Fold:
Amino acid sequence: MARVVHRHDSNRCVLAADAAVADSVLGKARGLMFRRSFPGDGLVFPFGGGGTRTLHMVCVTFDIDAVWVLDCRVERVARLPAWTGLGRASADTVIELPAGTADAVTAGDEIRVERS
Structure:
């Protein structure tokens, strides 16, 4: 599990206190597909380094906020609709959160994932 912390200027906010981490290839491939809700209060996808990361919402039945992070800096934030959403950006970490959770997050902000 992990904690996702958002920093903007001098403000600090916990976006997810108990997010699941998709460490395995299978966990990354499954993501939120075929689930009725989030495992914990978010899902973190750590990758070994930066690269273009694509998300799809096939077989995901609820909207999400997706945050692409590279070197602790937000590259992109997007609301992805159930079933039809698609997003892509450079990242070494992708974070999926319930829709509305990342409303105050913008490109350039700092995001830290603290593993427990």
Residues 2-107 form a domain with the Jelly Rolls fold (CATH 2.60.120.1140). The beta strands are 2-8, 11-21, 43-56, 64-70, 73-80, 86-98, 110-115.
